[in-house]
Amino acid sequence: MKTLTILKYQWKDLFRGKWIIGYALIYWLISDALIRFGGAGPKAMLSISNIMLLLVPLVGMIYGSLYLYQSREFTKLLLVQPLNRKTIFWGLYGGLAIPLAAAFTFGVTVPMVYSGMLFSMAVHSILMILVLGIILSFLFTGIGFWIGLKYFEDRIKGLGFALVGWLFLAILYDGLVLLAIFILGDYPIEKPMLAMSMLNPIDLARIIVLLEFDISALMGYTGAVFNRFFGSSLGIVVASLSLISWTLVPLLRGTSRFKKMDL
Amino acid sequence: MKYLKFILPILGILMSMPVQAQLVEISPNGEINSIQQGINLAAPYDTLIIQKGKYKEHDIEVNKPLTIIGEDYPIIDGDRQGFIIIITSDDVTLKGIEVQHASTSFMEDYAGILVDQTKNTLIEDVRLVDNFFGIYVAESEGTRIRNNYLSASGERETSSGNGIHLWYSKDAHIEGNYVRGHRDGLYFEFVDGATIRNNVSEENIRYGIHFMYSDNCTYIGNTFRDNGGGVAVMYTNNVNIIGNSFEDNWGSSAYGLLLKEINRSKIEDNTFANNSVGLYIEATSRNTVKRNTFSQNGWAIKLMANSTDNVFSGNSFVANTFELVTNSRQNFNTFTGNYWSAYEGYDLDRDGIGDVPHHPVRLFSVLVERQPQSLLLLRSLLIDMLDAAEKFMPVLTPETLYDPKPLMTQAP
Question: How far is A185 from chain B (nearest CA, A)?
Fold first, then answer.
C-alpha cells in the first residue's frame, strides 16, 4: 500500500518533468512515420520492432541510472519517513518502470489504432511487440537501477557503465558472436550459439522477433535448429527463464544494496 | 415422285440411326454388373452409364471410343491390384466416377487411370483417391483433364506416385484440378504445347509441379502451396508462367519456383509469398521476369551467376528477409523499374522513380551464404551497421548489380 503511495507521488513528479510525455511522443512519431511511409503491413511492424529493440534498452538503462541521481533528494526525504527500505526501493523502481513501459505501449498503439493496423494485422504479432517492449522496459530499467545504486556517489561512472553496458549488449556482443561463427564455423556450433543468445536479453528479444517475421528464412536454414528449439516448449521455458532472471537478478542485487547503503 | 420430299428426310433419319449412340447401363445389381462386361458389349461411340455403387475391378480396358458417365460417383475399387482403368482408344470420355486404390509398386507405374497412345481423351469431374499414380498419360495427343480431384496420402517419395503424370504427349489441357498428397502433384516430361490452367496443387511430398524437357507450355493462374520442394521447372525453352501463386514452401531446399536451364520464357504477374526461397534461378537465360510480387519470403530471388541476360522489371519486393542473393561479384542480368521495400532513397523530382539506384544484395546475405549459422544475427544493430558501410563502399557485394530506376511505390 505504501509502495503505491510512493508510486503516485513519483508519477506526479514524472509528468511534471514532461520527460515521460516526450518519450511517449517519440514512439508515437516514429510509429506514425513508419506506418505512413511503409504502409500498415508487416514492413512497418518490422521497423517498429527494430526501433523497439534499439530504443527501449538504451532509454531504460540510461534513464534508470540517471533517475536515481535526479531524485536523490526525494529518496532521502522518503528515507526519513517510517518506511522500510524495501518498500521504498520497489516504489522508486515501479514509479519509473511502469510509466516507461506505459509510454512505449501508448506511443506504439495509438498510431496503430488510427491507421487501422491494429485490426488488419495479426493480433499475435502486435501483442508480441508490445509484450516484448514492456518486458524489456522493466528489465533494462532494473539494470539501470542496479548500476545507479552501485555508483550512487559517482554519477559519471554510473552513466558511463550504463552506456557501455548498452553498447556491449546491443552491438559488441553480436560482434563477438559473429567472430566466433567465422572462426569456429566448421564445427557444430549451433547449440553453443543458442546458449550465447540466451545470455543476452536483446539478442533473445531479437530472435523472438525473427521467429515471428522471418520464419521463412529461418526455415530455409539447414536443419532449422533455431526454429525447432524456440518452437519447442523447452525453448519457450528456457527463454522465459532467461528473461525473468535478467529482470530479477539486478533488482535483487539492487534491493540488497539499497538496504545496506549508507545514505 | 411428289412423295420424294417426304421420303428423303425419313431415309436420312433411318441412315443416321446406326451412328447414333446406344445407352448401356451398368449397375451393381443389374443385368450388366461389371464395367468391363459393359465395355465389351458396347459398340464404338456408345454411352455407358454407371449407376451408383461399388465395383471391385481392375485393369478395365477401354479399347473403343466410348463415353463413360458415372451417376453420383460410383466407386471403382482396384483393391491394390494393378491399374484400374486403361484407355487405349481415341475419343474416350470419362466423367463423374470415383477411382480408388491402384496398386503400389517399385517396378511398375500403376495408375488410377492410364491413357496410353490415344487422341482426344477427356477426363472430367473424376475423383481419384489413394492411388499410386493418379492419371498417367503416355504418348497421347489432345488429352483434356478437367475439374478432377486427386488425393493420396503418401508418406515417402519412393512409395508414392505422381498426381497427373504426362509423358511424351502433345497439346494437353489440364484445367481446374485439385491435387494433394502425391509425390509430384503434376509431372511433365517431354510434353509439348500443354496448357495448365487454374489448378491447385498442395501438400505434395516433393514438387507441386515437376516439369522437364517440355517446350511451349503455358501455365496460368495455378496455385502451388505447401509442397515439400515447391515447384521445379527444368531444361525447357519457351514456357509462359503467368499469374500463378507460389506459397508457403518452407525448408532448406524448398523453392517457390526453381528454374534450371530455362530459356526464352516469360515469368509474369505471379505471386511468391512466404517461401524460404521465392524464385531460384540457375543456368537460365534470356527470360523476362515482370510484374511479379515477392512478399515475406526468406530469399525473394536466388540468382546463380551462370544465368545471363534475364530482365527483371516491374516486380514488387515487399518485406522479404533478403531481396536478392547471388554467388558472384559479376552481374549479367538487368534489373530496372522494380519496387523494393528495403529501398532507402528519395525522389526529389517526384516522378515516382527513386533518384539513387538500389543495391538489393546485402552484405549480410553474403555472410550468410558463407556461414549459414550467422543467420541468427539477422536484424542485429551490428549487422545493420555493416550493411550500411557496405552499401557506401561495396567490397563483397556485386557492384554492377543494381536497379537504376527503383519505383517509390508498389505497382498496383
Answer: 7
Instruction: Give the ipTM.
Output: 0.84
Q: Which residues of B touch A54 (CB under 8 A)?
A: 381
From first to last of the 263 residues of chain A, give the pLDDT tens digit. Answer: 677 788 888 788 777 778 889 999 999 999 999 888 777 677 788 889 989 999 999 999 998 898 888 888 888 888 888 888 888 888 889 888 999 999 999 999 999 998 888 888 788 888 999 999 999 999 999 999 999 988 888 889 999 999 999 999 999 999 999 999 899 888 888 888 888 888 899 999 998 888 888 877 777 765 567 777 777 788 888 888 999 999 999 999 988 888 888 77
Indicate yes or no: CB of B379 within 8 angstroms of CB of A219. Answer: no
Kindly report whether the global pTM for this prediction surpasses the value 0.90: no
What is the CATH classification number for the domain harbouring B84? 2.160.20.10
Residue B143 falls inside a structural domain: yes
CB B71 within 8 A of CB B50: yes
> Where in the sequence is the domain holding B126, given as residue range(s)?
20-225
Count of the separate structural domains present in chain B: 1
> Does B162 map to a domain?
yes
